[in-house]
Each structure stands twice: as C-alpha cells, then as structure tokens.
Amino acid sequence: MSTPAVKPIPEGMHTLTPHIIVAGAAEAIEFYKKAFNAVEQVRLPGPGGKLMHASLKIGDSTLMLVDEMPDCGGGASFGPKALKGTPVVLHLYVNDADATIAQAQAAGAKVTMPATDMFWGDRYGQVEDPFGHRWSVATHKRDVTPDEMKAAMEQMAQGRQ
C-alpha cells in the first residue's frame, strides 16, 4: 500500500501567510478573537510562559504569531512596539468594514483611519491593535476598471496640489 504524497502547501493554508511577532502573544490571541472573530488553531507554549508558535484562523486565512524573543541570540525577534512602529499593514477583507472596525475598537484597537468609500471600489479604514500592528479593513463595494481607477487617482492628486 502506498503512502499518499505530502502536499507542499498544507490543507487550509494559502501560499502567503502572515507571521507576526507580538509582545504578549497570549493576550494578542484573546484580542484577535474579540476584534476579528479569530479562531485559535494551534498554541505551542515555550519556556518562561512565552508562546513559541500560535496559529489563528481569521475568515478563510491563517495568521501565525509568536512572542517577542529579544534574548534569542542571532535570531532575536521584536514586535512593533519595541521597534517603535511597523511599516507593515495587515489587510483584512470583511463583509462590513464599519462593523469590523467598531468591533476592533471595542476590543481595544485605535482607529487611525475611519472607514471611507475609496476610489478603487472598497470601503476602507485602518486600526492599530494594542500590540502595535496596523490593520486595514475593507469591504469591496464596486468593481472599478483600470481606466476609472487611473482617472480617480489623477483627480485625487490634483486635489492635493
């Protein structure tokens, strides 16, 4: 009897999966459950109460996270607060951007950009979670052709001059 081939991308995973570093990963898991209806899939505790790995499902996607490990030699890892910010924004498509932003705010996120209808067809806003990670939250409202998007971008740029 032959053994079935192992899939190079595990079942339920996508090609690209965010893997974030958080100071207080256990607390972050609870926040993501409240803010984004995350479902915990895996939690691997390590020494000193730190999480060595965790995996959450948000919608149809996986978010991996780990605790900050500043004392891990050459593999030291820091979250956005230790680094005084992050250049990364995690993008989340949802059925109702306004409701999700309100839910995240009620869970402790700071709204950095209220939801607004955007020229590319999404209702879009941003929040910062209590751990320093930035999230954009969007609901696709209308399809826009490349020509319509280009014209809208040009019009927006003229308004800024």
From TrEMBL:
It holds the Pfam family Glyoxalase. It comes from the Bacteria. SUPFAM superfamilies: Glyoxalase/Bleomycin resistance protein/Dihydroxybiphenyl dioxygenase. GO terms for molecular function: dioxygenase activity. The keyword Cytoplasm does not apply. Keywords: Dioxygenase, Oxidoreductase. Residues 12-140 form the VOC domain. InterPro entries: Glyas_Bleomycin-R_OHBP_Dase, Glyas_Fos-R_dOase_dom, VOC_core. The keyword Oxidoreductase applies. Transmembrane segments: none annotated. PANTHER family: BNAUNNG04460D PROTEIN-RELATED (PTHR34109), VOC DOMAIN-CONTAINING PROTEIN (PTHR34109:SF1). This is Glyoxalase/bleomycin resistance protein/dioxygenase. It comes from Paraburkholderia phymatum (strain DSM 17167 / CIP 108236 / LMG 21445 / STM815) (Burkholderia phymatum). The lineage of its organism: Bacteria, Pseudomonadati, Pseudomonadota, Betaproteobacteria, Burkholderiales.
